[in-house]
Q: What sequence folds into this?
């Protein structure tokens, strides 16, 4: 008969505690001391005749692990392994050199932040390999992984249910701990999306209160957690509203919700990435029923930023010019809504794919074509909304190289090139109805005075087709920008900024009438 081992949390019911032989379980903690305590209590929770092996990564196991005289197994095999990738990869081989792991509970206590420099693809392969080894040896592996920022890893592991039988985390709070179970599968069935409060008393883990052995109901649909700035100084509108001074405090409270409405406040452009990461964590870990909204309190969002927030899992982004009454109506409109768009497990994919072009200004003809082609093939960007491409021919008397000197794009992602007597511009995420406005910002003179005609492409298939034609242009027909003579300093008082000479203004003092008469 296969043995069944237990997690060292007292009063926890069997559906969330048992770990039968033949599976891999993973528990993350945000503090190293919590991981050590959990391992010690897990050792003490086993039967007297249980076979237990404990591996300490980067630490001396004799200094951090101990046997309880009153409970736990009679003997525990202790091992140490170096803090590095090689130790993890050779873990199965090294264990079998010392013991026969059949019917063993093997506890791997990782070093603090041990996985932060290991890619998700390598972690996936390691899990597949270790899962196969555990099934072949008919043993149980519990991985206890401490780390200061486990959200990214935890979001990834939620999709690895084929290799993991259970995934949970212990997060430290002011005077308690939150035990967050993503999923837990054993002989009692499958449990998922459970959150329990734990108390750490005398180095022992206890449930803060006795819980019913049922799935936690989504009884917080009416709750609205909001940044205080969203209400523009108004008090909480009802007993269902909770206001927070910072987005970080709002995020920490939102991690305890199931189906509430979360409203972040965006006031500066540099907040976008942090809010995006918080939204991604909530959507990946708390599920599709949570309603997540971002209200732009001051104008700071570009179209790319809005797409990033929506791609990370936000239900809605409310623009800065929407009055408070309109904002409340929009919040009411998403009640009962379920999020059904795909959110990638790694937010770096979203960050790179929703902001794909880091180029700006003049590019060689082939570089321009490749950059626009890559953007058109980006499946995460909206169809027919990736930008506008426009080809401009100068009026007679103006060379195309001269027209290029007047083209001064300011936004990252706006690029241009010259060839075949044309100036070709690609304005990323520009809408067709905003084209004239964009061109007026790019050129210091009216475009009608510089160019005789223009051609415009704004649909993906038309832009892609034109890029195919442009790639067939021979290199000798590619244009080159005018050379800037930077080796000769002009006679005027000027400085060179690395690109061009700029004249230094000279202060002039105007004489008063009396001074002018005196000088004459």
A:
């Amino acid at each position: 008969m296969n043995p069944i081992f237990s997690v060292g949390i007292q009063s926890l019911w069997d559906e969330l505690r048992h770990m039968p032989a033949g599976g891999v379980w993973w528990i993350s903690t945000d503090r190293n001391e919590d991981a050590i305590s959990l391992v010690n209590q897990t050792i003490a929770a086993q039967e007297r005749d249980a076979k237990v092996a404990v591996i300490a990564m980067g630490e001396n196991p004799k200094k951090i692990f101990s046997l309880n005289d009153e409970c736990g197994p009679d003997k525990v095999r202790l091992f140490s392994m170096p803090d590095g990738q090689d130790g993890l990869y050779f873990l199965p081989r090294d264990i079998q050199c010392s013991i026969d792991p059949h019917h063993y509970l093997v506890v791997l206590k990782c070093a603090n932040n041990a996985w932060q420099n290991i890619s998700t693809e390598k972690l996936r392969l390691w899990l597949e390999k270790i899962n196969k080894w555990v099934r072949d040896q008919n043993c149980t592996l519990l991985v206890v992984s401490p780390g200061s920022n486990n959200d990214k890893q935890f979001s990834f592991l939620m999709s690895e249910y084929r290799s993991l039988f259970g995934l949970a985390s212990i997060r430290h709070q002011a005077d308690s701990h939150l035990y967050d179970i993503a999923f837990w599968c054993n002989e009692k069935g499958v449990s998922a999306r459970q959150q329990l409060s734990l108390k750490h008393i005398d180095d022992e883990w206890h449930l803060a209160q006795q819980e019913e052995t049922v799935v936690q109901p989504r009884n917080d649909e009416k709750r609205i957690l909001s940044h205080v700035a969203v209400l523009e100084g108004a008090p909480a509108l009802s007993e269902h509203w909770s206001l927070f001074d910072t987005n970080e405090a709002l995020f920490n409270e939102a991690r305890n919700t199931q189906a509430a409405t979360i409203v972040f406040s965006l006031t500066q452009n540099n907040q976008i990435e942090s809010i995006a990461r918080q939204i991604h964590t909530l959507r990946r870990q708390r599920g599709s029923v949570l309603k997540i909204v971002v209200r732009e309190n001051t104008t700071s969002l570009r179209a790319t930023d809005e797409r990033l927030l929506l791609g990370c899992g936000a239900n809605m982004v409310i623009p800065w010019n929407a009055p408070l009454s309109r904002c409340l109506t929009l919040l009411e409109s998403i009640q009962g809504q379920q999020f059904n768009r795909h959110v990638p497990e790694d937010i770096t994919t979203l960050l790179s794919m929703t902001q794909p072009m880091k180029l700006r200004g003049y590019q060689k003809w082939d570089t321009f074509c490749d950059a626009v082609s890559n953007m058109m093939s980006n499946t995460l960007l909206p169809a027919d909304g990736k930008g506008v491409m426009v080809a401009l021919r100068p009026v007679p008397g103006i060379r195309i190289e001269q027209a290029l000197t007047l083209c001064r794009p300011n936004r990252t992602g706006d690029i241009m090139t010259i060839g075949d007597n044309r100036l070709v511009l690609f304005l990323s995420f520009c809408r067709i109805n905003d084209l004239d406005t964009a061109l007026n910002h790019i050129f210091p003179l009216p475009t009608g005075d510089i160019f005789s005609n223009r051609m415009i492409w704004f649909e993906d298939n038309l832009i892609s087709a034109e890029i195919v034609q442009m790639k067939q242009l021979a290199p000798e027909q590619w244009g080159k920008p005018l050379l800037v003579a930077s080796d000769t300093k002009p006679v005027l008082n000027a400085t060179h900024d690395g690109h061009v000479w700029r004249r230094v203004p000279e202060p002039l003092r105007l004489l008063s009438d009396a001074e002018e008469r005196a000088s004459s």
In short: The chain has 17 helices and 23 strands. The longest helix spans residues 120-137. The longest strand covers residues 189-201.
